[in-house]
Amino acid sequence: MLKMTMTYEQALDFIHSTYKFGTKLGLQNIRKLLEFMGNPQKGLKVIHIAGTNGKGSTCAFINQMLIEAGFRVGLYTSPFLEYFNERIKLNNQPIDNQELASITEFVKDKIEEMLKQGFSHPTEFEVVTAIGFEFFKRKNVDFVVLEVGLGGRFDATNVVENPELCIITSIGFDHMDILGSTIEKIAFEKAGIIKQNSKVILGVQRYKEVKEVISKVCKQQSAQLIEVEKDYHILKNALDGMVFDCVTPRGIYKNLEIKLLGTHQIENALNCIYAYECLRENYDIKTEALVRGLLNARWNGRFEVFMNSPLIVLDGAHNVDGMKVLVENCKTYLSNKKIVAVAGILKDKEYEKMISLLKSVAREVIFTLVPYQKRAFSEEEALDVSNRFGLEFIADFKDAIKYAISLCGEDGAVIICGSLYLVGAARGFLKNMLSVL
């Protein structure tokens, strides 16, 4: 009897059905699954990126630089903004529906073999990671830019044995229930991606304890630690982009331009510059590719100017450090604007601190529910939070956005923030709204 081929919808249903297996930190399951699959991760040239903030933007810069240099580049990130396929890309093109279905069916078959032999069912993130590795192997990519999902040490992506580079971006307080309540514990988990004799780029850090932890792990692993130096000068900082000069121990760079906004994005661009300096030792990557990569990199949902009239900015700021950056960006770019914020925050975040920060720059904050998330507040809980902080509460994010737009006027700006899940849903809604205007 011929086996029915899985459809794209069935593939997504299967992937999302594995959510019930929760988050299990540890590599035993993913290693076993990949073993059943023939270890597709082996032989891939991986640039592995961990950190609390700036992982995605750093991935975007490095990914674009390598594409500009003429390489076939796989990009693995999470979460997605608008649709699932965004998480797995080849040269910026998301995996197509048919290929996702085909690989998911292959992975599902291997999971069934695992279960028959008494092994545990992989989690959703492990399944998606396995799909990503298989896709990159089949596409014969030159590099994989691989973003850690959670932490580092026990993250499913950490099955990579010999990365080309390990990059650790800015570390702050997030996922403390899993990673630990001190910056040292969190940094130790992120440092778990450091492998024996690897090269490690440590991005600009807010906390000196991070450097101490990473340095210690590098010594234990005989890894080369390369610290990003905060040596740059901003020439232009406007809503249409930033231009800066910078100096590294190996070079001087003039008039570099990026479209991602905020001084923290210059620090993420520095991670890319240091990666370029390491990679060019072994690969043909010209300075022009670096320059074009920085200029052409895009990372939606991070202080993204989505519309100019009315001015609508999308920012996934989903933890305290992210919200601090958003507040600074509002002061830099929107100081002359009446800001109306639509905020949806997951209940396992430090929402009290995040709301207080947001209120310092927004004339009005409308609290809303994060759609389609099990970690979201219930309507009753969200109403209680709104009452405690003196916020307007509108449960449906679409109604909240429409109301915010009605309030802001010509001299105003709407900021939609607090969760990438909210920003992704809002982005889709706004695009649909524009198409019918």
Automatic annotation (TrEMBL):
InterPro entries: Folylpolyglutamate_synth, Folylpolyglutamate_synth_CS, Mur-like_cat_sf, Mur_ligase_C, Mur_ligase_C_dom_sf, Mur_ligase_cen. One of its GO terms (cellular component) is cytoplasm. Its EC number is 6.3.2.12, 6.3.2.17. Residues 49-275 form the Mur ligase central domain. GO terms for molecular function: ATP binding; dihydrofolate synthase activity; metal ion binding; tetrahydrofolylpolyglutamate synthase activity. It comes from the Bacteria. Residues 301-419 form the Mur ligase C-terminal domain. This is Dihydrofolate synthase/folylpolyglutamate synthase. It comes from Caldicellulosiruptor obsidiansis (strain ATCC BAA-2073 / JCM 16842 / OB47).
